[in-house]
Design goal:
The complex is a heterodimer of chains A (181) and B (85).
Chain A lengths: L1 E8 L4 H14 L3 E8 L7 E9 L14 E4 L4 H4 L11 E5 L4 H4 L6 E5 L1 H8 L6 H12 L4 H11 L2 H21 L1
Parallel strand pairs in A: 1-4, 4-5, 5-6
Antiparallel strand pairs in A: 1-3, 2-3
Chain B lengths: L23 E5 L9 H5 L5 E3 L5 E3 L9 H5 L5 E5 L3
Antiparallel strand pairs in B: 1-4, 2-3
The chains are: A alpha/beta (181), B alpha+beta (85).
Chain lengths: 181, 85
Amino acid sequence: MKEIRFHGRGGQGAVTAADLLAMAAFYEGRYSQSFPSFGTERRGAPVLAFARIANSFIRRRSQIYSPDYVVVLDPSLIEVVDVTQGIRDDGKILINSEKSPDELGLETKAEVHTINATKIALDVLGVPIVNTAMIGAFGAMSGEVSLEAIVKAVKNRFSGSLAEKNVRAVEVAYQKMEERL
Amino acid sequence: MKPGAVITEPGSTVRNKTGGWRVFRPVFNMERCIDCGNCWIYCPEACVSKSEEGEYSADLEYCKGCGICANECPTEAIEMQLEEK
């Protein structure tokens, strides 16, 4: 079973990101779940969302304390919350940042990757909502879900031009991340 | 476990700088400014202020980068620039 924790801010789509990931895994015939956890429900407040992906029925229902993957949708969160908390030593962290992993200087044994998802979102969607781009990059980084499954999940969630744009964001981020690995 | 929703120290909110997640920041071009004060009036954070020299600026510790000031400015003296982070 793989456990994923998303750090975001209210309005960036961390909850939707976890949903889309779980949905994508489900489309690939795996078991999955997703659920959020937030304090103050307002734009900009730090938000947590979780997803589990497994090849067998998932009985665990608790919050995720030792994730295999951490996805950070907003780089400014690094100063506010401990994004590395509980991460497994062989885990991977994906951060939306224009900086390199070394520049961020996180104290963790986990592998750190960065992608400038804000730029992708602004270029493709025109708004700085980074969730779909981050899921695309996550797919490429982790190999847990295929690009096709993510696209299917996005199309299921959004409709019309919004779906098209978000699919583009997923694809661009997926390719960018793949090139970098 | 930390107690939730308990304020152990009064006035601690001022330490919570809420501007960190901004994507765009307002940059004021004072050469175009006509001192109408719209940015100061419309800012929902009340973080736009006027200095003694008459120059407007936004308090970036609280500015969320919403762009209302730039939108309201009649002379387009405020430009929203992409934040580097």
